[in-house]
Write a structure and sequence with these properties.
homotetramer, alpha/beta, Rossmann fold, FMN (chains A, B, C, D), ISF_SsuE-like (chains A, B, C, D), oxidoreductase activity (chains A, B, C, D)
Amino acid sequence: MKLAVIHGSTRANGNTEYLTYRAVPKEKATHIYLRDYQIQPIIDERHEKNGFQDVYDDHTKVIDLMLEHDVLVFSTPIYWYSMSGAMKIFIDRWSQIMRDPDYTHFREELGKKKAYLVAVGGDNPHIKGLPLIQQFKYICDFYGMSFEGYVIGKASKPEDIRNDQKALQAASSLIKEY
Amino acid sequence: MKLAVIHGSTRANGNTEYLTYRAVPKEKATHIYLRDYQIQPIIDERHEKNGFQDVYDDHTKVIDLMLEHDVLVFSTPIYWYSMSGAMKIFIDRWSQIMRDPDYTHFREELGKKKAYLVAVGGDNPHIKGLPLIQQFKYICDFYGMSFEGYVIGKASKPEDIRNDQKALQAASSLIKEY
Amino acid sequence: MKLAVIHGSTRANGNTEYLTYRAVPKEKATHIYLRDYQIQPIIDERHEKNGFQDVYDDHTKVIDLMLEHDVLVFSTPIYWYSMSGAMKIFIDRWSQIMRDPDYTHFREELGKKKAYLVAVGGDNPHIKGLPLIQQFKYICDFYGMSFEGYVIGKASKPEDIRNDQKALQAASSLIKEY
Amino acid sequence: MKLAVIHGSTRANGNTEYLTYRAVPKEKATHIYLRDYQIQPIIDERHEKNGFQDVYDDHTKVIDLMLEHDVLVFSTPIYWYSMSGAMKIFIDRWSQIMRDPDYTHFREELGKKKAYLVAVGGDNPHIKGLPLIQQFKYICDFYGMSFEGYVIGKASKPEDIRNDQKALQAASSLIKEY
């Protein structure tokens, strides 16, 4: 089982990463930091005569890396009660990938993977983070990915997460695949 | 009452816009198309010593325009069971605005406004769009904005929305302020 | 197409019924009022050696009636942000029906039906009624019933619903089957 | 701090109780088993000229007991993606209590309490139990009760819950008040 963590934080070594490393230590997975890649927001050209125009950025680089792994851990701070913009931009572009002749296998490949979610927010995340959990479930369902579990942490200021003992404990037993 | 519509579609004259114009005809409001503005995703620098660095893009232009109105209609296609990346990027940056010395009144001003949501999706949006509704409610609650109503439409291919008579009808009676 | 409406109101001619008749006029369907039947809450005996003990009440009468129809409209006031106790008691007992040797076809039969929901609440039902919508979707999914649509109305005092023009309008175009 | 646990299970010593005792050992709280009390479903007579008629059952006995405590743990199996009928019947009747001249202090008293939820289901409860969490949050909000936390367990057959190590662990650190 090969694990990849896809980090949607824009801040290095923040609370979300801290909690995520508790779930997946650095050496146990490929850690992909979306902030290290240039990824453009999608422009919906599904219905253009010539379909999507090529976008010259790093999106397929991340997609390729992601597809090499069996278990995907999505890690995101909760911004305005959903995933970070960086994570959303990355996922929005999957609509383009699905129409890319080089990725006709994309949906089927994702359908073989297992997914986890780690999310950290400051404003009552155990309640106000639930729409994100539900949204993520729908994304998994679309691809036939198995949504294996999630951990929600509460933190706002730097290092806050160290006080969320319940989340740290839950994270440490989140992943079943190693 | 001054109305503004904030459009999160990346495609002009698509289904979401069509439904939105049924709720708010072009001449009845200021229509702001986020795709016409350059807006960078947020980089979380809340906890940096010097706070957020200035970002030279169009974000405050849209914010200023938005603040001049009393009723805000957010219009977004449903991408992956939430708002479009374009809309999310715009809203994520509100975290930066709140720490901007020029916008100390931002939260309070939003708290005086009324908000509506128009959302269109192709995959069972009346169920799978509900996390977006809930998320939007939490955003409104944060600012004390009054969430006055929403319409969900079902459409996938161009012009599909014209067949969603229920949504068109609901949109036409959505806004109470004119 | 034979329609049945299952009414979970405990009060006759209340707001929920008013809205429901707008969706399904009295003469267009079999109207089943749960308050007219004696139905006991379930006692979970799934794991007893002899399984469920017979319950001598009207539950199977309602079940039999329900199964004779193709389209089921569930109508319930929103009590404490979910269906009424009367409706919940009725549905809880389905767990017993599924283990009843006389109803081995129950799950499969329900899977052929179409379902609608009409719900009326007084406390921001368009937001706080959403968990009920989601719950109802899960129930339908369990049986493979097709959840065709829902209407949410806002009313608290008697006759309030007459002022909810949007809900009345939406109800009048809810059912596609006649 | 006085703790009470309100058990909505209809089966003694089932999975939900097992998990709940991990959160609140028997000797640390008053354990109230709703199945030991006769409680009638509400009949909505809010709008009758003379209001609610007296109901001669055990409801106020449980209410009185509940009100003597500071922390309330609601424990329920997940039946059809929400609380058990027994629990729903109990809570539905709160609408009657609020209009009872002997309980004019009811809402205010509840507003001083802290609440927890323990819920156990068999069908993907970490996703399909979320509407129940949200519903429970709305109930707490109505009264101004502080919703302090919840644990969801997965179990179907007797003793299944013993295998849900994550839930058992989470339950053991759920309650902050002792």
